Amino acid sequence: MSDEKLNTERRDFLSKGAVLAASAGVAAVSVAPSVAVAKPASNVGPIEVKGYVKDPKNLKEVLTNAKRIMDTCAACDIAGPGRCNGKGPCGESTPGMGGKRRSFINNVEAFEKLHFNMSTVHNVKKPNTELELFGVKLSMPILTGVTGGLTYNMGAKGKLAYDGTEMTESKFVRGIVEGAYNAGTLGWAADGIGDPIETYRERLTVVKKFKGRALAQIKPRTQKEIFERIDAVQAAGAPFFAIDIDSAGRAARALPGKTVEPKDVKKLREIVKYAKIPFVAKGIMTPAEALMCVEAGCAGIVVSDHGGRVMSSTPASLDVLPGIVKAVRDSGSDMVILFDSGVRDGGDVLKALALGAQAVLVGRPFLRASLGGGAKGVEMMFKKMHTQLVSTMVLAGVADVKKVPADIIYKEA
Question: Which helix (H) or strand (E) covers residue 219, if one does?
């Protein structure tokens, strides 16, 4: 099934759901398009977005492009501090690119509330940002987040992109993966809840092109469907993969007949046993469940609440990170602990590392970068975040991302 046909089915399904919700008295948040676009006649080519810069030369142009092409995300922070805080006009609009009540906001504010001890009496001049993750050497402890469905989630479908042709899901994925590759790190190809295996395999062609330097995620489907996708991921040459089990509650957004479900220890163990490459469980928010992943033999976890987009009133992912790290390390496990949700700049990256994460996943900044500039835009965003990380490391006296001391975080006496 083509991306275009699949996107049409999803939009129809989500639209019907929105109508049903409205009839039940559920309040909907209206989102005005971020830029006026001309409505083409039927069977005419892609919509040309007014003011969209083809072949952007800098990150400002890339992000401005993203603001203009999206209509469910107002990108209201681009001209300001660069931090989407979940308080903008996007709100809880379907399909939820804002957040669920306080959850999204909690993630961003947790970083804002955490402060560094500034240190300038030391010999750290050129910090080392390189590390190795499951045998893959990375230039920095930053990976893209697991993002997908941008043509219909963000309103980019049918619009002209940075290269003068129509923006497609495949083009978005290529921008993420290639941009990360050029920056010396890793990007993810995402599995959509309604994606049939044929569409998923199409997405994995990008992963295969960058064999060993690109990743793939799988939705928490039935075990049979997961095993089928694991085969495809391994054939594409991904060094490891993740299942975002924090999508388990999004079953209502699946197309009819599709299944997403929670995973118990038994099922996690079956996945670990079946896979020939490391399996990472994404969406862990408690020490108890982190230890269940240790018990199941998972190679790693991602501490994440899906960016605050799946459940109302969750604590910030950053706030639960220290407790999870302590529980896992006290158990004697060296399971890899990654972090996701609310990271907006290089300083945030260092905060997560100081609290025990080994690397972070960053979603919204990179999805905007790919929509607004493809691989070049994603590479620009990585460069910006890397520069911020290095600068913060120097000002905190941190020499190596693999050894970030917890005492760089300020605590009141």
Answer: none
